[in-house]
Design brief:
- This protein is an alpha/beta fold.
- It has eleven helices and five strands; from the N terminus they run ααβαβαβαααααβαβα.
- The protein has a five-stranded parallel sheet, sandwiched between helices.
- β1, α3 and β2 form a beta-alpha-beta unit.
- It starts with a helix and ends in an 11-residue tail after the last helix.
């Protein structure tokens, strides 16, 4: 009996150990991967239009309707042909509308890694040069995370760092004093070493992570996880990131309103959650409510996917929230349909166009 248990234990240890070594080797060399890891640069797409805008050589004129898009990597379109990207398809669709302009020009200012704060920074950088009549904010529910304001002065930062270091030192001293009163039990030490091994094991962490992801796709969200925080607490007034996001959005909305221009918010769809999207309802509805209070038209990007059966067509992979080429096109056309009546009401129709009354 014990001999069999020993063999099983040794087999498991060999499996984990070999898998650990193989996984770490592949992560370092990507020799077994079908493709090398791709790092997204934190830069807006350098189209000819963007280059002209940044260089100050773009000259806005009254014959064009200019739409500025700001957002994160979601519709940035990495590895997607420019003509199939969200921004380009949106531009093509809006140019079919009988607006009183010679053309609609869309500037894609999306940037991987952006949040609400950095989105507004991009707006203040690009808007004076591009002079958009319409600004489209692609809002992601994780935009409340990350840096939300300019860095403190060096003096303030050093004081804060010193306080943090002192607190950490006191905590370590208390832990050390407490550990001295614990008897050096053999099995207790084995348990601690095992916990340490589990924490450092890439294979086990990967396994736990995948189980968590599988549960999440089915609408089962484990407490104390980052995703649980995002859907339950990130968009409440108790969370600093949400409070700052509201301030940044309100300030940008006021700036656009003062110019008599239009701000529109489009909540990007999380394509990996299509089978259990209800878990995101609370967070996304709070964004819509905020926009309503600021008189900002807001649309939930998941709407056109609610009744889709072949949802794999619209996501780049099972666990990734980014949209596929098909989703870039579908979302852009959905938004164009939503924007059309708003733009026609605001800017009117082309001269000579027959308008059918409601």
């Amino acid at each position: 009996m014990w001999k069999k248990i020993t063999y099983i234990a040794l087999g498991l240890l060999f499996f984990v150990g070999f898998g650990e070594a193989l996984y770490r080797f592949d992560r370092a060399t990507a020799i077994f991967s079908s493709q090398q890891k791709v790092e997204l640069e934190n830069e807006a797409a350098q189209t000819d239009l963007m280059v002209d805008v940044l260089n100050g050589t773009f000259i806005p004129d009254s014959s064009s309707l200019r739409l500025l898009i700001i957002g994160d990597s979601h519709f940035y379109g990495h590895n997607i042909d420019v003509d199939s990207s969200f921004a380009k398809v949106l531009e093509q669709e809006l140019n079919k509308v009988d607006l009183p302009f010679e053309q609609v020009v869309v500037l894609d200012g999306t940037r991987p890694g952006n949040n609400t704060f950095t989105n507004t920074l991009d707006y203040y950088e690009l808007a004076p040069k591009f002079q958009p009549q319409v600004t489209l904010l692609l809002y992601n529910t994780n935009d409340v995370y990350g840096i939300m304001e300019k860095k403190e002065s060096e003096q303030d930062s050093s004081v804060k760092n010193n306080l943090t270091e002192n607190a950490d030192a006191n905590w370590r001293n208390r832990r050390k004093a407490k550990s001295e009163h614990v008897s050096h039990d053999f099995w207790l030490q084995v348990y601690k070493d095992f916990r340490l091994f589990i924490g450092k094991s890439v294979v086990i962490n990967k396994l736990v992570s995948n189980v968590n992801l599988e549960l999440r796709l089915r609408g089962i969200v484990l407490p104390k996880t980052e995703f649980h925080h995002m859907i339950t607490k990130s968009h409440t007034d108790y969370y600093y990131g949400w409070k700052m996001s509201k301030q940044h959005l309100a300030k940008m909305a006021q700036d656009i309103h003062n110019k008599n221009d239009l701000l529109v918010v489009y909540i990007v769809p999380q394509m990996n959650m299509v089978q259990a999207y209800h878990v995101l309802d609370t967070a996304e509805n709070r964004v819509v409510s905020l926009c309503d209070s600021l008189d900002i038209p807001a649309f939930r990007g998941f709407t056109p996917y609610a009744d889709i059966k072949n949802r794999d067509l619209y996501r780049i992979s099972k666990y990734d929230s980014h949209p596929s080429i098909a989703a870039h096109k579908k979302s852009a056309r959905h938004l164009a349909d939503e924007l059309t009546p708003i733009l026609l009401e605001r800017f009117g129709h082309k001269e000579g166009t027959d308008v059918i009354p409601d």
